[in-house]
Structures are given as C-alpha cells and as structure tokens.
Structure prediction request, 625 residues.
Amino acid sequence: MSAMQGSLSFKRLALPILPAALALLAVVAVSPGIGSQPISAIDAWQAVMEDGEDPEDAIVRNITMLRLARTVCALLAGTTLALCGAVTQTQFRNVLATPYTLGIASGGALGAAISVLLGWNATILGLGAESWAALVGCAAVVGLVLLLAGTLYGLSGNSLVLAGVAIGFFCSAMLMFTTYLADVRGKEQIVRWMMSSVEKMDFDEPLRMLPPMAISWIGLLLCAPGLNQLQLGEELAASRGVRVGWLQTANIGFASLGTACVVSLCGPIGFVGLLVPHAVRLIIGRDHRLLLPLAALWGGVFLIVCDWLARLLPVWWGRWQDGESSAAGLPIGVVTSAIGAPVFLLLLCKARMKRKIS
Amino acid sequence: MADETLVKLSAVRFGYPRGDVFLGPCDLTIHPGTVHALLGPNGAGKSTLLRLVSGIATPHSGSVTWLNENLQTLSPRERAKRIAFLPQHTETPDDLSARDVVMLGRFPVRENRFFDSVEDDRVVDACMATTEVTAFATRRLSEMSGGESQRVHIAAALAQKPQMLILDEPTSSLDPYHQLEIARLLRGLTHEQHLTVLLATHDLNLASQFADVATLMRDGSIVATGHPRDTLTPKQLQTVYGVAFDSVRRSHDERPWVFATTEPAAT
Prediction:
C-alpha cells in the first residue's frame, strides 16, 4: 500500500474521517460513566438533561459534570497536540519532532513554576495565574527561539530545532532552580503541574481556551496542501508555487499557539504529539489533507481513553491491594507516556514487518 | 531553432548573503522548444542560474523576463504554471508511490486546492504514460532504480503542464543506458509537446548530442553560448575546465565528441 494512496476525493476523505468522528463521539458519550464511582453512561446523561431536584440525581449530575469537564479538556488537548505534532514532524522533516521541540513545554513549565514560587493566585479572564504564567512562558520561548534562530542562521528547520533544544534546556535548568527555591507545598504543586492533568472543576477554562485552539486547528488544516509539497523539500515546494517562508511561519505560529494553550490548560502532556501522528501516518499515509484531520480526531480519542485509565487505574490498584477503591486519579501524563512508549514501539515493528512482507 | 525568445536574462547578478558565491553579470536568451544545456565546472554558477530562471531566486540586479514580462512580478503559482523545476536532490519520502509523487505535481495548476479532480487523474495518467512509468504506478520510490525514479520526477514536473522544464543534473548518478533514456525523453518532449528544456549537466557528450544550445559557464560568468558544434571546442573547454580537451566530430551533423586528455590538445 502506498503512503498517499492516490487522488483525494471528498468520498475518500469522508471514508476514514467518519469512523474517527464516530469513535470520538462514542468515547465522549461513554466518558461520564467511567471513574471511581461507577455510573451508567445513560444515567449520567439523563441526570444532566433532566435537571431534577432529587439529591441523588444532583450527586450524579455533579459527578457527570466533573467528568465531562475533564473529558472536554482531554478532547481539546489530544486533538491539538496530535495535530500540532503531525505538522511539526513535516515542518522539521524529523520523525522525532513533537509540539514541544521548540522548547514550548519547558517555557510553559518555567512560567507556571515562577507563578507558584511567587505565590500568584489571581484569576484573570477566567484563567488562573499558573495558566497565564505558562502561556507567557510559552510565548516568550517561541519568541526567543525565532529571534535566536533567525539572527544566527536564518529560519531553517535545523536552526529552529537547535535553538529550541538549547532554550528548552536552559528553561529546564531554571525550572529546577525555581523548584529548589520553592517551599514544600510549592515543590509539590510544581511537580504535580509537570505531571500534567485534565482535571477541571468546570467547563470555564477549557472553553476559554477553545477560540485560540480553534484558530490553530483551522490554520493548520489550511496548511495541509502546502505541507504535502514541503515534504519533498523546500526548493521543489517553492518551484511549485508554495510560499515556503509564509507556510513555515504559519506552521510554527499556529502550532505554537495550539501547544501553548494545551500546556497552559493541562501542563506538558507527553507522547500524544509523537504517537498519534505516527500511528495515523502508518495507516493512512502521508497525505496531510487526510493525515491532519484524522490525527486530530484520533488524538482526542487517545487522550480521552488515557484519561479513563488515569481515573480507573488507582481504583483497580486500590481494590487489588486492600479491597478499597481510591478516588484520586493518576496524572494523565503518566498514562500517556506509559502507554505511548510500548504502543509506539509496537507500531514501528508492525510497520517494518509490513514493509518486509510487501 | 525558433527565433522568438521565451526567457531572457539581462545583466543578471546574484550573490548569497555570506558572499561566497557570486554570479554575473549574465546575459542569456532561451528560445522556446529547444534543449538548452548549461555546462561548466563545479561552482561555475549553473545551479544558481537555474534557480534564477525558475524564479526561486531573485537577482540582485538585472532582470529575468518571461515573454517580455518580468518573472519576479508573477506570483509563485503563476510562475509554477509556466516553469517546472527539478532540483538535483529531492527529499521525497521513501514510502510515496510513483503515482503519489506525480499527483503532487498538480499542485500549482489544480483549481480546487484541497481535492483532486477527474482532470488531475487524467493528466497524471497521461504524464506517467509519456515518461513510461505507468507500469509501476503503485511502487514506492525507494524500490525503484535511479532512472525509473528520475522518470517519475519528470512525470511530476510534466503534471504541472509547464511550458519550460528546468532540470539540475538530471543524469548524474545514472548509468549510460539510463542517461540516454532520460536524454531521449527530454528531446522527445521538445518535439512532441513543444516544451523548452533547460538543464545543467557535467556530461559534455550527452549535451553535445542532444542539446540545441550549449552554454559554457565559469566563475559565475557565461563564457560561450551557441550550438554545441560552435561552443564545445577543445579551446573553449580548456578555458572553462582548465584541462586539455580533444574532440572528434560526428560526420552527419558536426556535433563533437569531446574528452579531457593529459596530452596537449590537437590543433
């Protein structure tokens, strides 16, 4: 099977997108029923729809709303990270590139850690101080990377990656220093933030992040035909009428915007931006007109399922240990990385075997 | 050879920001429907000249005109509808099939940017038939020989429906059989589709046999331009390459076979 599999018609686009969209709808629908308190998904949705006075209904409604809030958060983060990952890998023509290659995660983490150290706890426009500080940290790092790479070498893929890695390491060092300076509670807060989480008390924060994330999705999806050309090399793409400089700037800009929103909302969730685009690419190929929307949809599915595991694993662990279930969820970053690494290796092995057979 | 001018370079100069390569001033005329070969040693400025004619690079001074219109005033997409460029090295991912690569060539000409049309399919099939790669349409590029993969790239360039095809060393790393195969294909395209071909090559004899015009370059300047029988003389080649050359002329068309020699050039 070839990597792009011929011409793309509306039918060929809809064929893989429809099941992915249905899978996403299904996991969102089932999600309120999954957690330490077992509720059937139907009861959960009924409690939300009916808005009854019964105190038991109110409890179910509250649990459902909390689970839905984290589901929405996982959906937004997964979709954005997978989409940004797919674009970043093509942009840098590097299979190991992730949305964090430009050091965004380290910048965001440093920003959040500084806000913890200084004890900022104000809420501005519905976003907490940590989220704002992370957002500022991300923006500062992207600005610095562009400035450094542009001044020293010109905005080529390699110079951006090198500048990103260097600034990322510096931010990591500063993050360790900030953690060292923080008190015990601050240290715990920083470590917890670094582990990332989709736990939200309500829909306020995720929905506030939706507009900038949607801008990043639309921007990146519009870049898809140009990205198909860019994978053949900058010179050939330019000769075919692609404004390579504009395309690369748009890719970096939109991917950074989306990633910064995710880091600010949930912390640096790992592996989604690496695993999901690779998995989708192995199955449907390199046509970005298909790859990008599918990576986005399956990214959402993947992170919601990881969130289920983050909710359920402590429960299963507690029951196995002493028969008591624990309500405390695992940080989602632990689950994505723990699942992501072996699944990623499995996919690579399968791809290799498939090639040998064909 | 047609008298009309397709591309004209007038006093073109070009330098990279770090100043290590400099080209020009160059004056050159390219006629439609011809095979025009650029020859010269490494670093002579052949590839730079190709990039200037393709519109990817902008001259520091002077002008490159396409049918009397400044090439730089055309949008990149409009340029790509006229000129297809095939660099010496492409970064085509291994797992793309031949047909995928050719379909990518439709990018500048397709009406709908997102979806491929029936017309795109038709053109791609026709271009693959022209370069005789239809048989391995579904084969990955990584599984093809150098000659096959080069023909796929030429089919992709043809899918742009250009009037001019620019190729940077299209026969380098190919064996003599495949070199001749590509040269015949390009020659055929100028006859059958009235395509203009501009190529850079190190193969003096291939250029001598197949080109209508051979331009010799050295140190960023054009030393000579004209029919191969007039430009590929031992004296001019020695001036350009700095080594002695000898030649034998074909009886029917006076085109020379040239070869570098350690002996002093025959007079």
